[in-house]
Amino acid sequence: MRHFILGCIATLGVASLGLSASAMAATEIKVAYGNQPGEPIDVAVKKWAEWVKQESNGDLILQPFPASQLGSETEVMEQARFGSALIGINAYSNFMDSVPDLSVLDAPYLSKTFDDKLKVFDSPWFAEQNKKLNAQGYHIVVPNVIYGERQLLSKNAVKTPEDLKGVKVRVQNSPMYVAAIRAMGAIPTPMSLGDVYPALAQGMVSGVENPPSVLFGGKFYEVVKQLNLTRHMQTVTPFVTGEAFWQKLDDDQRRILDETGKRFADYASELVMAQNDKDIERLKEAGVQVNEVDIAPFQARARQEIPKDFPQWSPGLYEQISEIING
Prior knowledge:
Elements: H1 2-23, E1 27-32, H2 40-55, E2 60-65, H3 73-81, E3 86-89, H4 114-117, H5 124-135, E4 138-154, E5 168-171, H6 175-184, E6 187-190, H7 196-201, E7 207-210, H8 212-217, E8 226-242, H9 243-248, H10 251-285, E9 289-292, H11 296-309, H12 317-326
Helix pairs in contact: 2-10, 6-11
Keywords: Signal, Transport
Organism: Kushneria marisflavi
Family: Belongs to the bacterial solute-binding protein 7 family.
């Protein structure tokens, strides 16, 4: 009987240790993004995961999920908002319905350089918008990853807005991108990226805008040969989780994600900018003519036209953010 009791105690002890180990298991967070394996964002996310594991002594684990494996940005954000252990890449224009003023950060011609644009993330305005976003159930973990400078690849050279009159340019199906191309003087034509090559070949559109890496990767240079450095958007993207999940993390876990997130933003931005220069050279080598563009008249049109398309913005918002960035 005594041996039976001792055996039961030992079994309970092992079970208790197992429960303790389970209770102390690492917190695993999925990181979702649409970029393909090997692209700068993917490389940087994997480095971020290394830093987080190291700094937390294995208490925090980031699991990269590239190539939209977990769904679209909108789908990922909905999961995160309802408490899933997820951090997803997003676009500020995707917050149009929850915190409309944040979407201005994706507007065209707000800045001439990325260094200028990054100023906004240290401003009281951004801090205020961030609080509003928290109240809507979201939490920005990393606000300022440089994603790329968008250029225009077209059939004919473009120097002024007049050169775009009547020209159909493919855009993604987003109100901000439609408004941007319209403000530049062209006819925005929404379609999926996979349909662009045949559309260019058949003359359904005469241009496509995107960072050079996408323009090269899609082989659009086989059909149209003029790369116009319109620099219409310096895209800076956030990585976002849900506020409910963020509050479940302890102070040390949040600190680690904040501190390593800053390193991640710097590293990702360096990789993206280096790749941008390489891809412009690759386009040149593929026979593309690269045209410098005076952006002043495009910027003037954007300042006049863009606010008209977004009546939900606070009055004078575009000008206010331009002053923060360029001041």
